[in-house]
Amino acid sequence: LQVLSRIDSILRSPRAPPLIFRPSKGPGQNYMEESAQGFEHLPLTIEMWADQLIALKDLHKSLRKLSLELLPWNTKDPQDNRESIRVEDLQLIVDAILEELEHKEKNSHTPSLQTLSAIVSHFQKLFDVNSLNGVYPRMNEVYTKLGEMTNTMRNLHELLELDSSAPPTVVVDTVGKLCDIVKKNVTEQVQQLLGTQDIHSIINKLEEHESFFPPFQALIQDLLCLLEISNVGDILPAVQSLK
């Protein structure tokens, strides 16, 4: 009876939820009858609370997962080994997450660890770097190559008298046109040198020179050795002195 009286005092307390006790509206009844009728729905309420306590544990697990995603460095949770989970435990986790989100908003210019990791991974993929140790050397290599390319493009713009804003395609086209002009001039000079405008004649001339110059070169070498001189210009004076 004392236990029932204590439970009754707790359930009738102003702090108790109104759904756990419904006073009887009938005529005057003794204490036990009124309590029995007022608490008829209490088993259903207790069952609901039991379900909520189980759901509270599931909610705690979900919040812990979210906390590990947002706060990976905060792995310590003193409530992990407790059988009962309190609302205060959940509130601590939520407060920590909110505090971190507010901190991120204030320092939005500072990238997170996840962002930095994604940037490094993207660099490794773009420039075929297999390990983290190779990131810095490849960065230096890319920086050096970029500097060389920038200087080359600047010099080409100046040599070709192009505007500094001209894209690389314009530079390539201009260099291609210059190469065509140079090839055309070389062809004309060869034709003038060999005294012919016919390509077949040019081939014949080259074949004649190819058959003539090797024996002529061998003769000159023999004369240089025979006359014991080293200059082609000294051959004629040396031969004249032998007369």
TrEMBL record:
Domain of life, per lineage: Eukaryota
Entry GO terms, CC: centrosome
GO BP annotations, alphabetical order: cilium assembly; regulation of microtubule cytoskeleton organization
Entries under InterPro entries matching the protein: CEP70
Leader sequence segment: none
Swiss-Prot/TrEMBL keywords: Coiled coil, Cytoplasm, Cytoskeleton, TPR repeat
Gene Ontology molecular functions: gamma-tubulin binding
Keyword Transferase among UniProt keywords: no
Subcellular locations according to the entry: Cytoplasm, Cytoskeleton, Microtubule organizing center, Centrosome
DNA-binding as UniProt keyword: no
Subunit field text: Directly interacts with tubulin-gamma; this interaction determines centrosomal localization.
Described purpose of this protein according to its UniProt entry: Plays a role in the organization of both preexisting and nascent microtubules in interphase cells. During mitosis, required for the organization and orientation of the mitotic spindle.
Name of the protein: Centrosomal protein of 70 kDa
UniProt source species: Sitta europaea
Gene coding for it: Cep70_0
